Automatic annotation (TrEMBL):
GO biological process: phosphorelay signal transduction system; regulation of DNA-templated transcription
Any one Gene Ontology molecular-function term assigned to this protein's record: DNA binding
The name this protein goes by in its record: Two component transcriptional regulator, LuxR family
Coiled coil spans: none
Length: 220
């Protein structure tokens, strides 16, 4: 029996390229495609593939949510490989929690993708144990409510403070005026209960050591 694969990506050219790659393998067969989360949830149960390759970002949702739902509704559940253009720790942790077998970037070599499909179909995982352990630890440890109170922009600025950047350098990085950055810094220090910038830098560094992912970069 060959390995049946279902593809979910909103870019047709990506689906065609991956389908062409996999269909060329004698032991693989692409049994369906979808361009959105809604289509995927409607079509994957009928196809009941061995492996589902899912784009992380879809027009109407996330591939991670699709992974979680199809794995809960099908028995046996398909192995899910997340395929994305973005290296995002938050999404990686989400994929692990959802039960994905792998998290791959779209610049992965064709032979490596084929190998990943075979590994996933055989019940293997492409996520290293250390990364999985960090994700589980993050689930067990509640998030600091002070950090939760920060806006996405304040979280990004906090991460940049930890790297030693000045307000002017942070402004250049995020395309903000220096005065605007100064206002953000004052706000985040107040929310965290710190009086000095160095305290915020130490706090951010301790989060990294505890396995907390940095804030995602702004979309440009």
């Amino acid at each position: 029996m060959g390995i049946s694969v279902f593809l979910v990506d909103d870019h047709e050219i990506v689906r065609r390229g991956v389908a062409h790659l996999l269909d060329a393998e004698p032991d693989m067969d692409v049994v369906g495609e979808a361009a959105s989360a809604t289509e995927a949830l409607a079509r994957i149960p009928a196809a009941h593939p061995d492996v589902a390759i899912l784009d992380v970002r879809l027009p109407d949702g996330e591939g991670i949510s699709v992974c979680r739902e199809v794995r809960s509704m099908l028995d046996p559940p398909p192995a899910c490989l997340m395929l994305t253009s973005y290296s995002d720790d938050q999404a990686l942790f989400g994929a692990i929690v959802a039960g994905a077998a792998g998290y791959l970037l779209k610049d992965v070599a064709g032979t490596n993708l084929v190998g990943a499909v075979r590994t996933a179909a055989a019940g293997g995982s492409l996520i290293d144990p250390e990364t999985a352990a960090r994700a589980l630890e993050r689930l067990r440890t509640p998030e600091d409510p002070r950090y939760e109170s920060l806006s996405p922009q304040e979280r990004r600025i906090l991460d940049l403070i930890a790297t030693g950047l000045t307000n002017r350098q942070i402004g250049a990085e995020l395309f903000l005026a220096e005065k605007t950055v100064k206002n953000y810094v004052s706000s985040l220090l107040h929310k965290l209960g710190f009086a000095r910038r160095t305290e915020a830098a130490v706090y951010a560094a301790s989060r990294r050591r505890a396995g907390r992912p940095p804030a995602p970069p702004p979309q440009r």
